[in-house]
Amino acid sequence: MKKKLLYVGAFLLIAASFSSCEDLLNNCKTCALNTYEDGVLISSAQEAEYCDAELIAIQATPDVTIGNTVSKWECD
C-alpha cells in the first residue's frame, strides 16, 4: 500500500512539473485608448499587447475628462 502511495505521489509530482507556468510569469493584456462622448465610443486607438511594468503603468493611468468627453485605457 505504501508503495502505491509513493508511486501516485511521484506521478503527481512529475505531472505538476510539466504544467505550464507561462500564464503565471507572463502578465500581458491587450489594451486600447478609447474616447467616449456622452457615453458613446467616438474613437479607439489600435489595440496593442502590454506586459509587466508597461501594463501596470497603463492600468494606473486615470481617465481624462474634458467636458463630456472621456478618454481612458481599456484592457482585455
Describe the structure in your own words.
This protein has 76 residues and is α+β, with helices and mostly antiparallel strands. The chain has a domain at 23-75. The protein contains three helices and five strands. Strands 1, 2, 3, 4 and 5 form a five-stranded antiparallel beta sheet that branches. A hairpin with a 2-residue loop joins β1 and β2.
Category from helices, strands and their pairing: alpha+beta
**Strand coverage percent:** 35-45%
The total count of strands amounts to 5
Name the assembly state: single chain
Instruction: Supply the number of helical segments.
Output: 3
**Between the first and last Cα atoms, what is the distance in angstroms?**
49 Å
Mean of pLDDT: 84
User: Share of helix among residues?
Assistant: 25-40%
Shape: rod-shaped
Please describe the structure with a list of short key phrases separated by commas or semicolons:
76 residues, alpha+beta, five-stranded antiparallel beta sheet
Quick overview:
The chain is of the alpha+beta class and 76 residues long. Helices cover 38% and strands 38% of the residues. Strands 1, 2, 3, 4 and 5 form a five-stranded antiparallel beta sheet that branches.
Write the layout of secondary structure elements.
Elements: H1 2-17, H2 22-25, E1 28-37, E2 40-44, E3 48-51, H3 52-60, E4 64-66, E5 69-75
Antiparallel strand pairs: 1-2, 1-3, 1-5, 4-5
